[in-house]
Write a structure and sequence with these properties.
The chain is α+β, with helices and mostly antiparallel strands. It starts with a helix and ends in a 7-residue tail after the last strand. The chain is built from 11 helices and 8 strands. The chain folds into 2 domains: 156 residues, Alpha-ketoacid/pyruvate dehydrogenase kinase, N-terminal domain (Butyryl-CoA Dehydrogenase, subunit A, domain 3, Up-down Bundle); 165 residues, Heat Shock Protein 90 (2-Layer Sandwich), CATH 3.30.565. Helix 7 packs across helix 11. The strands form 2 sheets. Strands 3-5-6-8-7 form a 5-stranded mixed β-sheet. It has a 3-stranded antiparallel β-sheet with strand order 1-2-4. The longest helix has 29 residues.
Length: 338
Amino acid sequence: GRLDEFLKAEISFLARTGYSSIKIEQILEHRLPAHVANVINRELPARFADRIRQIENTTPQWRKIPGMREAHEVLSTSFRNLRLVNYSEDDLSEFSDMIVDLKKRHASIVELFAQAASGLQQRGILQPPEIDQWLAKVMDSRIGTEMLTEHFLSLMKRSDKNHVGIVDTKCDPARICQQAIDHISSFSPPKIKITLATKQPNIEFSFISMYLFYIIEELLKNSVSATLRQTIKLGKEPEEVKITVCADSHRIGIKVSDKGGGVSFEDTDKVWMYMYSTTPDEIQSRFSDSSPLSGPGMGLSFCKLYTEYLGGSLHLMSMPGVGTDAYIFLNRIDAGSE
């Protein structure tokens, strides 16, 4: 009908308009749910329109590729709901319900796009470097969507004094690393020991704790997988995986270090590709897929994207035949006051 035509025209217009990346500093600027609702209403339709056009412009056969039609449907439904929702700054209940539904609907979106990317590669429609660029757009948009919607719902819950929505103003990186160690240890072979060394006591900074947890968890998963693979290969006791946390007045540094055999020099650049995985299926199957960073080889590239999105950097130093050191550097951010 006429409404559908209008929404299609809006998608075309907004897809051309573009959108900006959301940074942690911007998240901290918005402390009232109504303000975040306005940002969501401005930012998310443009993101979804861009993804819808990305799907449609990839190939005329997009409806026949597993994952693409489903992802298109998810995005189109969310776009429609965002454009039609009624809310006022005094009554955000309908908007809040819509966001909860949107998050449930989008829970499988990364998986759908990964499935689509695999199909595009198998059919020769896109080559590996193009697949990487294609997925990078999807993931960048996904992180912004995730941050804004989580922030809104956290503000609606009126969290404790140490939080501004999803931002933990007293984020303790050593505590987060220990939580990730405990989680990984619960489903990794008991012989693999993970140790934590903190170079300064009581390091605290403003950060999104759940994202730091996911990043550390993914790096640990890679290190434990490599250590397990090396143990099977050499037939001897596994070496321990070590995490070191340090800080100065400007930055936080975290190193995850393993003796899991490293990555060959020729594969060093490939580890950042979305569809690349060094972990055999029989080892991968030992790990939980509860982390949003887990998936078909997308973890490490997703980690890097999250880290950079949040103003930090992630580097790998690998020694083939020996092991790998992963370094995360994160900037301290002044959370200010209300």
